[in-house]
Design goal:
- By secondary structure, the chain is an alpha/beta fold.
- It has two domains: about 300 residues, FAD/NAD(P)-binding domain (3-Layer(bba) Sandwich), CATH 3.50.50; about 160 residues, FAD/NAD(P)-binding domain (3-Layer(bba) Sandwich), CATH 3.50.50.
- It contains 15 helices and 20 strands.
- The strands form five sheets. Strands 1, 2, 3, 4, 5, 6, 17 and 18 form an eight-stranded mixed β-sheet that branches.
- Strand 8, helix 4 and strand 9 form a beta-alpha-beta unit.
- The longest helix is centred in the middle third of the chain and has 23 residues.
- The two termini are about 35 Å apart.
- About 0% of the residues have low confidence.
- One of its GO terms (molecular function) is monooxygenase activity.
- Keywords: FAD, Flavoprotein, Monooxygenase, Oxidoreductase.
- Its EC number is 1.14.13.-.
- Belongs to the FAD-binding monooxygenase family.
């Protein structure tokens, strides 16, 4: 990377969000951009998460870009290797590789108010950009809890998102810590190889069957020959999930029927009443993400598996102690304990117009105008930003809506002409966030009686969108300039004054 190279747009990350942003920029006629990727390949979370059994819990035809349909998905719910291969194909199909700078982790991004540009320091050099699109995603930085004595453990320890493929699990005494979406896929995948598998369960999840099957050759031929058939399939999958949203956002009491189905699903595989009691949640279904698996409960019923109804509290050498005092011996610990979602590390590296980092600005909770723009961070947009997550549908739908917003953002800068930047007005951010939080009050995520990764340290839901994907698409169709301050270069800005004084 040339020292102090300048580009019009810098995209950070090459997962679905980053690659989608790159495609959209090219479709808008913009080729002066780079994609900064910290790793050596594209794929984001679908590159990093390569654990046994890793797959998507959203149907394949809905978990792909509308502008890059894949008629050849092999299964109704695709595995990690198929999704990563899809992203590689998207990269090549749209000619993105010349724009990608691999092994270029961002160390710091600082707003230069005099020049109206971002100064981006990476491990491979420094560059500047008029606009930054942060697409690092909330599921990119693994979180391992601080467990007393963990450093004394003599065996092998790793997180599900950093799977140690060189570690042979055959005959091992394995401790699986966590019961989230990754854990329920890992447990049945490794149970046959384990000598003993102990699941440390802090909170039991609600689990529904995963109705997965191979997509037949005839179906794939039909989708290739008649693309409309694939679009209809995608539309049906989308429509069903849109109809479900009201139960999650306005009428959580309607989810009782789903709870009964989930309990029947458990009862079919778990015959032991004591184990069934351990695995039965005490919160409303949907409060945490509903997990899909047809193998999880059968695996837990196997004789070489123990379920400990308590999280891991302490490690004493090779002895693991649960919150309820239960002890278990292990030589391998696998953490399926999620990611830094409401405290994304990238926020520590972004320095805005007033010298504060994004992490400092979000100290009281993440918030961004239409999930994209934080006040005090001009020409900085986040893909999969605050309150853009989903509890029941495909994130690709939300990403594409934010790409629409990005495209209009760039158009508005073109219309303004010359050197210009847009900074979200604090009152606009506040008004948007107040509306979102007002709608959040009735949702199952806030009223269901659980503590989930959707909530930040203060108990605020800064993660999920409390509406339909079509509502979000309408809300992000265009940029409303009244919600932004327009910044121009000025002598005052060059002297280090507040850039807002240069507003026109």
């Amino acid at each position: 990377m040339a020292e102090h190279e300048h580009v019009r747009v810098a995209v950070v990350g090459s997962g679905f969000g980053g690659l989608g942003a790159a495609v959209r920029l090219r479709r808008e006629g913009i080729t002066d951009f780079v994609v900064l990727e910290r790793a050596g390949g594209v794929g984001g979370t679908w590159r990093d998460n390569s654990y046994p059994g890793c797959a998507c819990d959203v149907p394949s035809h809905l978990y792909s870009f509308s502008f890059a349909p894949n008629p050849d998905w092999p299964r109704t719910f695709s595995g990690q290797e198929h999704i990563r291969a899809y992203l590689e194909r998207v990269t090549d199909l749209f000619g993105l590789r010349p724009h990608i700078r691999f092994d270029s982790e961002v160390k710091r991004m600082t707003w230069d108010g005099a020049e109206l540009r971002w100064v981006i320091e990476t491990v491979s050099g420094t560059l500047t950009a008029d606009l930054v699109v942060s697409a690092t995603g909330p599921l990119s930085d693994p979180k391992i809890p601080e467990i007393p004595g963990l450093d004394t453990f003599p065996g092998t320890v790793f997180h599900s998102a950093r799977w140690d493929h060189g570690h042979d699990l055959r005959g091992r005494r394995i401790a699986m810590v966590g019961t989230g979406a990754s854990a329920i896929q890992i447990v049945p995948a490794i149970q046959p190889r384990a000598g003993r598998l102990v699941l440390f369960q802090r909170t039991p999840p609600w689990v529904m069957p995963r109705v997965d099957r191979a997509i037949t050759g005839a179906e794939r031929r039909l989708h290739r020959a008649l693309p409309l058939s694939a679009r209809l399939r995608r539309g049906l999958l989308w429509g069903v999930r849109e109809l479900q949203v009201q139960a999650f956002t306005k009428h959580p009491e309607e989810l009782g029927f789903v709870e009964r189905l989930a309990k029947r699903n458990m009862a079919r595989a778990i015959k032991d009443p004591a184990l069934r009691a351990k695995l039965t949640p005490d919160y409303r279904i949907g409060c945490k993400r509903i997990l899909l698996s047809s193998e999880y409960y059968p695996a837990l019923a196997r004789p070489n598996v123990d379920v400990v109804a308590g999280g891991l509290r302490e490690v004493r050498g090779s002895t693991l102690v649960a919150a309820d005092g239960t002890e278990a011996e292990a030589d391998t610990i696998v953490f399926g304990t999620g990611f830094h979602v409401t405290d994304m590390p990238i926020a520590e590296r972004v320095v805005g117009a007033d010298g504060r980092t994004l992490a400092e600005a979000w100290k009281g909770g993440m918030e961004a105008l239409r999930g994209a723009s934080a006040a005090g961070f001009p020409n900085f947009m986040t893909v999969i930003g605050p309150n853009t997550g989903l509890g029941n549908s495909s994130m690709i739908l939300m990403i594409e809506s934010q790409l629409n917003y990005l495209a209009d953002y760039v158009r508005q800068l073109d219309v303004l002409g010359g050197r210009a930047a847009l900074d979200a007005r604090p009152r606009a951010v506040r008004a948007w966030n107040d509306r979102v939080q007002q709608r959040m009050r009735r949702t199952v995520w806030n009223t269901g009686g659980c503590t989930s990764w959707y909530l930040d340290a203060d108990g605020r839901n800064t993660t999920v969108w409390p509406g339909t994907t079509s509502e979000f698409r309408r809300a992000t169709r265009r940029v409303d300039l009244a919600e932004y301050e327009v910044l121009r270069p000025s002598a005052a800005g060059a002297a280090g004054a507040d850039p807002r004084e240069a507003t026109v």
